[in-house]
Amino acid sequence: MPDIEHIQYVKTPIAEVYRALTTADGLAEIWTRELAFTAQEGAINEFSFGDEAPTRMEITELVPDKRMVWHCVDSDPEWIGTDVSFELAQSNGRTSVVLRHTGWRELTEFYRSCNYNWAMFLLSLKQYCEDGTGIPFQVRKF
Protein backbone atom coordinates (compact mmCIF):
# COMPACT_ATOMS: atom_id res chain seq x y z
CA MET A 1 0.00 0.00 0.00
CA PRO A 2 1.31 3.47 -0.79
CA ASP A 3 1.48 6.03 2.01
CA ILE A 4 2.07 9.76 1.92
CA GLU A 5 4.74 11.15 4.21
CA HIS A 6 6.16 14.68 4.47
CA ILE A 7 8.22 16.65 6.97
CA GLN A 8 8.24 20.41 7.55
CA TYR A 9 10.42 22.49 9.85
CA VAL A 10 8.80 25.50 11.53
CA LYS A 11 10.71 28.20 13.40
CA THR A 12 8.06 28.36 16.10
CA PRO A 13 7.77 26.70 19.54
CA ILE A 14 6.10 23.30 19.52
CA ALA A 15 3.13 24.50 21.60
CA GLU A 16 2.25 27.11 18.97
CA VAL A 17 2.45 24.58 16.13
CA TYR A 18 0.32 22.13 18.12
CA ARG A 19 -2.23 24.89 18.78
CA ALA A 20 -2.39 25.71 15.06
CA LEU A 21 -3.15 22.05 14.26
CA THR A 22 -5.64 21.49 17.08
CA THR A 23 -7.88 24.56 17.02
CA ALA A 24 -10.62 25.59 14.63
CA ASP A 25 -8.98 29.01 14.26
CA GLY A 26 -5.63 27.49 13.33
CA LEU A 27 -7.03 24.93 10.89
CA ALA A 28 -9.23 27.63 9.31
CA GLU A 29 -6.06 29.54 8.42
CA ILE A 30 -4.09 26.47 7.35
CA TRP A 31 -6.55 24.17 5.55
CA THR A 32 -10.13 25.39 5.09
CA ARG A 33 -12.27 28.10 6.61
CA GLU A 34 -15.35 25.88 6.33
CA LEU A 35 -15.02 23.52 9.27
CA ALA A 36 -16.48 22.29 12.53
CA PHE A 37 -13.61 21.18 14.77
CA THR A 38 -13.22 20.05 18.38
CA ALA A 39 -9.85 18.81 19.66
CA GLN A 40 -10.99 15.78 21.61
CA GLU A 41 -10.41 12.06 21.13
CA GLY A 42 -13.52 10.54 19.60
CA ALA A 43 -14.70 13.85 18.11
CA ILE A 44 -15.76 13.67 14.48
CA ASN A 45 -14.75 16.88 12.73
CA GLU A 46 -15.92 18.21 9.38
CA PHE A 47 -13.88 20.00 6.74
CA SER A 48 -15.50 21.42 3.59
CA PHE A 49 -13.85 22.36 0.31
CA GLY A 50 -16.18 24.21 -2.05
CA ASP A 51 -18.90 22.11 -3.64
CA GLU A 52 -17.51 18.76 -2.45
CA ALA A 53 -19.26 16.80 0.30
CA PRO A 54 -17.59 17.45 3.68
CA THR A 55 -14.67 15.33 4.79
CA ARG A 56 -15.34 13.83 8.23
CA MET A 57 -12.37 12.86 10.40
CA GLU A 58 -12.47 11.23 13.82
CA ILE A 59 -9.67 12.11 16.23
CA THR A 60 -8.31 8.77 17.41
CA GLU A 61 -5.24 10.04 19.24
CA LEU A 62 -4.38 13.39 20.79
CA VAL A 63 -1.17 13.86 22.78
CA PRO A 64 -0.49 17.53 23.65
CA ASP A 65 2.54 18.99 21.89
CA LYS A 66 3.40 15.59 20.38
CA ARG A 67 0.82 13.87 18.17
CA MET A 68 -2.65 13.93 16.66
CA VAL A 69 -4.24 11.20 14.52
CA TRP A 70 -7.38 11.47 12.40
CA HIS A 71 -9.31 8.52 10.96
CA CYS A 72 -11.37 9.33 7.87
CA VAL A 73 -14.98 8.21 8.31
CA ASP A 74 -16.51 10.03 5.31
CA SER A 75 -15.01 11.72 2.26
CA ASP A 76 -13.92 10.74 -1.20
CA PRO A 77 -14.07 6.92 -1.29
CA GLU A 78 -10.27 6.73 -1.59
CA TRP A 79 -9.90 8.49 1.77
CA ILE A 80 -12.46 6.52 3.78
CA GLY A 81 -10.64 4.24 6.22
CA THR A 82 -7.32 6.07 5.89
CA ASP A 83 -5.47 7.81 8.73
CA VAL A 84 -3.72 11.18 8.87
CA SER A 85 -1.18 11.75 11.62
CA PHE A 86 0.81 14.75 12.73
CA GLU A 87 3.92 14.09 14.85
CA LEU A 88 5.77 17.01 16.44
CA ALA A 89 9.27 17.30 17.87
CA GLN A 90 11.37 20.30 18.85
CA SER A 91 15.11 20.75 18.39
CA ASN A 92 17.42 23.75 18.03
CA GLY A 93 14.58 26.28 18.05
CA ARG A 94 12.61 24.53 15.33
CA THR A 95 9.56 22.29 15.43
CA SER A 96 9.48 19.39 13.01
CA VAL A 97 6.09 18.25 11.77
CA VAL A 98 5.84 14.80 10.20
CA LEU A 99 2.57 14.33 8.34
CA ARG A 100 1.60 10.82 7.29
CA HIS A 101 -1.50 9.82 5.35
CA THR A 102 -1.63 6.04 5.56
CA GLY A 103 -3.93 3.24 4.49
CA TRP A 104 -4.29 4.08 0.81
CA ARG A 105 -5.41 1.06 -1.16
CA GLU A 106 -3.63 1.97 -4.39
CA LEU A 107 -1.58 4.63 -6.10
CA THR A 108 -4.01 6.69 -8.20
CA GLU A 109 -4.26 10.13 -9.76
CA PHE A 110 -6.16 11.28 -6.66
CA TYR A 111 -3.39 9.91 -4.42
CA ARG A 112 -0.84 11.96 -6.37
CA SER A 113 -2.99 15.09 -6.09
CA CYS A 114 -3.41 14.58 -2.32
CA ASN A 115 0.32 14.01 -1.93
CA TYR A 116 0.96 17.43 -3.48
CA ASN A 117 -1.80 19.10 -1.46
CA TRP A 118 -0.52 17.70 1.86
CA ALA A 119 2.85 19.30 1.06
CA MET A 120 1.01 22.58 0.46
CA PHE A 121 -0.82 22.08 3.78
CA LEU A 122 2.56 21.95 5.53
CA LEU A 123 3.73 25.07 3.68
CA SER A 124 0.54 26.79 4.83
CA LEU A 125 1.19 25.65 8.41
CA LYS A 126 4.75 27.01 8.27
CA GLN A 127 3.62 30.37 6.89
CA TYR A 128 0.82 30.65 9.44
CA CYS A 129 3.06 29.83 12.41
CA GLU A 130 5.98 31.98 11.28
CA ASP A 131 4.23 34.91 9.56
CA GLY A 132 0.63 34.84 10.85
CA THR A 133 -1.03 34.08 7.50
CA GLY A 134 -1.67 30.64 6.06
CA ILE A 135 -3.00 29.54 2.68
CA PRO A 136 -6.45 28.02 3.29
CA PHE A 137 -8.42 26.41 0.47
CA GLN A 138 -10.52 29.53 -0.02
CA VAL A 139 -7.53 31.73 -0.97
CA ARG A 140 -5.09 29.32 -2.58
CA LYS A 141 -4.22 29.55 -6.25
CA PHE A 142 -2.54 26.17 -6.76
Structure description:
By secondary structure, this protein is of the alpha+beta class. The chain has a single domain, classed as Alpha-D-Glucose-1,6-Bisphosphate, Chain A, domain 4 (2-Layer Sandwich), CATH 3.30.530. About 25% of the residues lie in helices and about 35% in strands. The protein contains three helices and seven strands. The chain has helices spanning about 15-20, 25-30, 110-130; strands at about 5-10, 35, 45-50, 55-65, 65-75, 85-90, 95-100. The chain has a seven-stranded antiparallel β-sheet, covered by helices on one side. Strand 4 and strand 5 form a beta hairpin. The protein is globular and about 40 Å long. The model has no long low-confidence stretch (mean pLDDT about 95).
Task: Report helical residue fraction.
Answer: 25-40%
What ranges have pLDDT less than 50 throughout 5 or more consecutive residues? none
Could you give the order of strands across the largest sheet? 1-7-6-5-4-3-2
Q: What is the percentage of strand-forming residues?
A: 35-45%
Number of helices: 3
Q: How many distinct folded domains?
A: 1
Radius of gyration: 14 Å
| Helix/strand/pairing category | alpha+beta
Give me the CATH architecture, please.
2-Layer Sandwich
- Strand tally is 7
CATH structural class:
Alpha Beta
Rounded mean pLDDT is 97
Specify the overall morphology: globular
